[in-house]
Amino acid sequence: YRFGETVSICFWDDSWKPDSYFDKIADNAKRGLHTLCLLDIKVKEQSIVNLMKGNDIYEPPRFMSVQTALQQLMEIDENRGNPGIVGKDSLVVGVARVGCKDQSIVFGRAEDVASDEAADRLGGPLHSLVICAQGTEGLQEMEQEFVEQYRI
What are the GO BP annotations of this UniProt entry (predicted)? Predict the structure, then answer.
C-alpha cells in the first residue's frame, strides 16, 4: 500500500487555525502517496472561561466530520497558494465507524465528499479521511476498482 505519514486534523476556533499538518499532506502528495487523516475528538474539554474560573464544567463531546476536515483542508490549500494538494477536485475517501456493522465509505472529489449528501451517507462519528495520491501515481487499478463502488 502506498501510504505516507499519517496526520491528525484538529478543530479550528476563532483565534486558532493550525495548519502544520498540511505540510505532511503536501510531502506525501509529492511522493505519490496517500495520506490517512485522523480527525479530532473533543471529550471532557473545558471552555476557557470555565478553565479560568476553576469551574468543573465540561463542554459536550465533539467529533470532527469528514466534511469539516475537508472544508478546513481546502481553505488551507487556497490560502497557501498550493491549489490542488487538497482542492475541490482532489480524490478523497471518507470513512465512518470502520470495523463496525454500520461502517460507511464514500469516495469522490473533495467538493462532493464535503457535500450534505455525503454527510448523510457517512452518518455519525467516528470519521477518518484518506487523501488519495495524485497524478500518474494516483490510485492503482485494484484501489480504483474498490473505491468506485462508493463514489458519490
Answer: protein histidyl modification to diphthamide
